[in-house]
Amino acid sequence: MNHLRFLLVAAVAITTLRAAADKPVPRTDPNSKLAHEQLLAKAKQGRIDVYFVGDSITRRWGATDYPDFLEHWKKSFHGWNAANFGWGGDSTEHMLWRLQNGEFAGINPKVVVVLAGTNNVGRIPPNDEKVAEIVRGVKAIVDACRAMSPASTIILTAIFPRNDNPAVLPGIARINSDLARLADGKSVRFLDVNDKLADKEGILFEGMTVDKLHLSLKGYEVWASGLKLMLTALLGPPAKTDHAPSPTGDPSARKR
Q: pLDDT tens across 154-206, in order?
């Protein structure tokens, strides 16, 4: 009986853990806490018309500790007042917590760019339950942005292929198929540039990534091309001046 009870408790615990993708969870490591404080300050500075939320793939693009990527970020989005609120290692539940704990407060951007879910996937092929969980997590981010800034247009970006374990690619494709159905073509728009990043099997083209997961400059150019078409349609051409807050970086990079 005790053995059966243990199994039931374990099953409940696993189910709860798997359901966490759509529930806000804070990062508790010191570096993430410092980054959160940094992003809270950024949220109160300048003018933010285009708000990027994501994980390390988003963060690296507009971060001071990746100067080549930052130069490309400025070249791509100058004049649209774009601000980067990505943080490395975040899963959907962590982004959701950051949005609900000050990093999105009172901003009301015209456009929100969302890229989320690859850290929930990880290197293990997701089963049906995991696919549904990740979709719920991304949907929770979209819903939170819509609730806090109803006038914003959401650009939901498809999860990029990752080649650190090609066995996850079918799962990513299934997640993206479900994410596409969250878009209505108006307030929520779906951007999928994966056919320009990878072949039909999801294998990334030469030069698109630096480590089989994170984008290279060539990869960011592909993402930028898709985004700039959408931003121009939504906001018009970029202005000559830009009033976005200054870029931030990884607090631990200062120590290095």
A: 999 999 999 999 999 999 999 999 999 999 999 999 999 999 999 999 999 99
Quick check: helix, strand or coil at residue 76?
Answer: helix
Angstrom CA distances, 179 to 109, 115, 190, stand at 22, 11, 8
Q: Measure Cα distances from 96 to 47, 78, 187 in Å.
A: 22, 27, 19
* Residue 160 CA: distances (Å) to CA of 37, 51, 178, 204, 249: 28, 19, 14, 9, 23
Domain boundaries, the chain: 2-239
Amino acid at 233: A
Q: Token digits for 99? A: 């949005």
What are the CA-CA distances from residue 167 to residues 73, 200, 202, 211 (Å)?
A: 31, 14, 10, 16
Q: Which two tokens stand for residue 243?
A: 């009033």
Asked if pLDDT for residue 7 goes beyond 60, the answer is no
Q: What is the pTM of this model?
A: 0.92
DSSP type of residue 126 = P
Partners of 215 in the β-ladder:
209
pLDDT tens, 91-150? 999 999 999 999 999 999 999 999 999 999 999 999 999 999 999 999 999 999 999 999
Of the candidates 120, 130, 94, 93, the residue with the CA atom closest to the CA atom of residue 15: 130
The CATH class, in words, for 2-239 is alpha beta
